[in-house]
Amino acid sequence: MAYEKLVSEWPGIFIIITTISCNVTAQFFKFFVHRWRTKEWSLTALLTTGGMPSSHTAAMIGLAVSVGIICGINSVEFAIAAVLAGVVIHDALGIRRHAGIQAKMLNRIIADVQELGDSIAEGGVFDNPAYDKKLKELLGHEPIEVLGGIIYGAIMSVVVFGIFMLFLSF
């Protein structure tokens, strides 16, 4: 009875709430993972990209799982959500991760040249204030962080589904 009510009366709301819940709670979870890893509290961990778990991956898995619950895993809607999740996962492991590696290298090169001073960078090229701001290095994810996002998104989707079932059974 509750499942039929969910599918007939609340499908869109369920999918949206599941997806947002996966994203927001995974981002919040990063705050505590950062604390555990570094022994420091950092509010920037709440807003940063990269890190454990991947909140983008968790959100996309939440979307795919919730669409699968509502529409079935043999539906066109689920196929679209699954493909989108795959694209986001590929992006997190690929281009975003490599952009972070490049940023780390560029930051190191600029720091090294600035240390050598004007003898190398004649005319003070690297004295420009634009080089004082470091590039963001934590852009993508390590494979374990993406796997964490996949597991977190799947578990959170089931939790949200259980909450909806409980709510709709009254």
UniProtKB/TrEMBL annotation:
Record-annotated membrane-spanning stretches: 12-33, 76-95, 146-168
Record key words, sorted: Membrane, Transmembrane, Transmembrane helix
InterPro entries: DUF212, PAP2/HPO_sf
Superkingdom classification of source: Bacteria
Descriptive protein name: Divergent PAP2 family protein
